[in-house]
Amino acid sequence: MKLLSLLSMALIGGSSAFAPAPVVNSRAVTPMSMSAAEGEFYIDQNRRNLMNLILVGSAAVTVGGLAVPYILFFVPPGAGGGEGGTPAKDALGNEIFAKEYLATKKAGDHSLAQGLKGDATYLIVKEDGTLQDYGLNAVCTHLGCVVPWSAANNKFMCPCHGSQYAPTGAVVRGPAPLPLALAHLDVDESGKVVFSTWSETDFRTDGKPWWM
């Protein structure tokens, strides 16, 4: 009997050695905990997206602010024109008044303004200190570069392909095939400088205006 008891105890002890170990401090993953984790992920992702938008927006505003003075010469004005003509505007989009403008300019000055259709157009100060009664479109008739005025050479000299124009905008050296386009310039009752379309004979060629 003692032998049987000892054998039984040995068998019971051996079987317990192969039993699986209990899980200590385990936590089941429930649908609720998964939802919470997903929610945290979406919140973090939304925060990152928002920060990216803020950074991109800030950069766009900064670059846009620096570019404004240059863009305004090539973007058509949003208002103006009609029977009274198109107001001349400076690089910041402000309307130009003759008295204030001439107070800062000397005879022979050629300065750019925003003209018809938003094109860069030269205002010319005559020797008597008044404005010339026409403006000159600054766009080269060869390939469309904006032509700077060279006071030292008393003519317009295109840096792109070497075209040159007289102070009146007439071609003095190619490859430009045509003179700079003309626009009428007037000062209205309020003293504002305005442009209007030049549709009559081109006094430089005695022919019809090519821009019409």
Automatic annotation (TrEMBL):
Cofactor(s) listed in the protein's UniProt record: [2Fe-2S] cluster
Alphabetized UniProt keyword annotations: 2Fe-2S, Disulfide bond, Electron transport, Iron, Iron-sulfur, Membrane, Metal-binding, Signal, Translocase, Transmembrane, Transmembrane helix, Transport
Enzymatic reactions: 2 oxidized [plastocyanin] + a plastoquinol + 2 H(+)(in) = 2 reduced [plastocyanin] + a plastoquinone + 4 H(+)(out)
CDD domains named among the record's database cross-references: Rieske_cytochrome_b6f (cd03471)
Membrane-spanning intervals of the chain: 50-75
One Gene Ontology term, aspect cellular component: plasma membrane
GO MF term (any one): metal ion binding
Segments forming domain Rieske: 98-194
Position of the signal peptide: 1-17
Membrane topology, record value: Single-pass membrane protein
Pfam family of the protein (one): Rieske
Keyword Disulfide bond among UniProt keywords: yes
InterPro entries documented for this protein: Rieske_2Fe-2S (IPR017941), Rieske_2Fe-2S_sf (IPR036922), Rieske_Fe-S_prot (IPR014349), Rieske_Fe-S_prot_C (IPR005805), TM_PetC (IPR057415)
E.C. numbers: 7.1.1.6
Compartment(s): Membrane; Thylakoid
Family label: Belongs to the Rieske iron-sulfur protein family.
Matches recorded under NCBIfam families: PRK13474.1
Name of this protein: plastoquinol--plastocyanin reductase
Species: Thalassiosira pseudonana (Marine diatom)
Lineage, opening ranks: Eukaryota, Sar, Stramenopiles, Ochrophyta, Bacillariophyta
